[in-house]
Design a protein that fits this description.
The chain has 122 residues and is mostly helical. The chain has four helices and no strands.
C-alpha cells in the first residue's frame, strides 16, 4: 500500500547510541588505570602474518603516499572542532555542535562500524 509517501526509511536523529564499554574504558583512562602498563608508548610487536597480504599491501601503499582515508581525515577534523567548542556558549555553541554532528554523520557513513562516533548533545 503506497499512500504517496517515499518508501524510504528514515532514522530518527534524536536516538543516540551509548557504547557502555567505551565509556567504562574512557573512565578508567581518566582515572589513570592504564598509566603503568608494561610497554606503554612502545610499538606493538606483530608477527609477519597478522594481516592478510592484500590489506598489508594496501596500507603500505597508502602510508608510502601519505594518504589518509576520508574517515580518518573526518575524525581529525571532528577532534579539531571539539577543541574549538570548549570556550563557546549559547547560540555559537549550538551552531558549532550542529557542524560537528554533520561531520560525525559523514564520518560514521565512511568508517568501520566499530569506530563510529556518537553525536554531540548540549
Amino acid at each position: 500500500m503506497n499512500d504517496g509517501k517515499d518508501d524510504k526509511f528514515e532514522v530518527d536523529e534524536r536516538i543516540q547510541y551509548t557504547d557502555h564499554m567505551s565509556e567504562i574504558i574512557k573512565k578508567a583512562e581518566r582515572e589513570g588505570h592504564f598509566d603503568d602498563l608494561p610497554g606503554k608508548g612502545k610499538p606493538l610487536k606483530h608477527d609477519q602474518n597478522y594481516m592478510n597480504p592484500s590489506e598489508k599491501q594496501l596500507y603500505k601503499t597508502l602510508k608510502d603516499n601519505h594518504f589518509l582515508p576520508r574517515w580518518v581525515e573526518l575524525a581529525n577534523e571532528i577532534d579539531r572542532l571539539k577543541e574549538e567548542l570548549r570556550p563557546l556558549q549559547g547560540k555559537e555553541r549550538r551552531k558549532k555542535i550542529n557542524k560537528i554532528n554533520k561531520q560525525i554523520k559523514a564520518h560514521n557513513g565512511a568508517c568501520p562500524p566499530s569506530l563510529q562516533k556518537n553525536k554531540l548533545t548540549e
